[in-house]
Amino acid sequence: MTTHGNQTILVLGATGKTGRRLVHTLRTAGRTVRAASRSGEIRFDWSDQDTWPTALAGASAVYLIAPEDPALAQIFVKQATEAGVARFVALSARGIEQLPADFFQGMTAAEQAVRESGAQWTILRPNNFNQNFDDDVWRAPLRGGRLALPIGSVPEPFIDAQDIADVAAAVLTSDSHHEQVYDLSGPRALTFGTAVATIAKAAGRPIRYVELTPQEYRAELLAAGVSEEAAAELNALFAGMRAGHFAEPVDGVRRVLGRDPIDFDTYVTRAAAADAWS
C-alpha cells in the first residue's frame, strides 16, 4: 500500500550523496519535501538543537542520516515523534553489527532509536557507494593517478547512490516496509583493483590501485590531516571488508523496487562522461 496525500517528508543530509538524489526523486514524484542540511534549503545542524524544531514542523516522515554523536539520535527521534513524525527511514551500513562496537556509534544509536520510537521504521544498510569514487572520498586520489587502500583481493558489490535514493523514496511513501532491515548492494562484486582499472579505461588515463597495510593506510590518512579517531574507524571498516562480511551481492534493491540495481560499469560510463576523473 502506498501513502498518498500531502504528507511532508523531511530529508536530513539533503545536500549529501543519497539525500540530494532522494530530494530530487521525491519531488519528481510530486511529493512535498523539506530538504534539510547545514547548507541546504532548511538549516539543520546536529550540533545546534535550535535548528531541529523548524525542520520537523509539519513533517510526517523522516529520512534519517545518523549523527556522529550517538547521544543525539534518541533525543532527535523523541522530538520528531512528539512533533508528529510517524515514519522513519534510517540510513545505516551493511554489516554494522559485525564491526567493533566502539565505531560507527551514531548509526547504531540511530537504528536503536527508530526501533524504539513507536513509529513505523525501516533501516537501509548499503555497501560502499559507487559515488565514493567520483565524489569526496576517492575522487582526488583517482585524479592524482593513485588510489591506495588496505582491502586486498576481497570484492565489494558497490551500490549506486541513486538506487539507495530510489529505495528510500519507495519506503518513505509506502506502508509495507515497517520493521524491515534492507541490506542494499550492487548487482555484482568486484575488487578495488578491477574498479580502478575500469575507471582508468573510461577516463582514458593511467590510474593505479596500490595495496597498503593497515599501518601504511593509517600513516597516509594522518599525513592527509585525518584525525586519529577517523583513521581508526576507517581501518575498522576495511578490516570488516577484508573479512568478507559485505562481499556477497544481496537482493534488497530488487525486493523493494522490483528491478536490478545499477551496474558499476554504467555508473563509471556516466561519471567519466561528466569528467569526474579528468
TrEMBL record:
InterPro entries with a match to the protein in the record: Ergot_Alk_Oxidoreductase, NAD(P)-bd_dom, NAD(P)-bd_dom_sf
Pfam short name (any one): NAD_binding_10
All copies of domain NAD(P)-binding, residue ranges: 13-174
Name the UniProt record assigns to this protein: NAD(P)H-binding protein
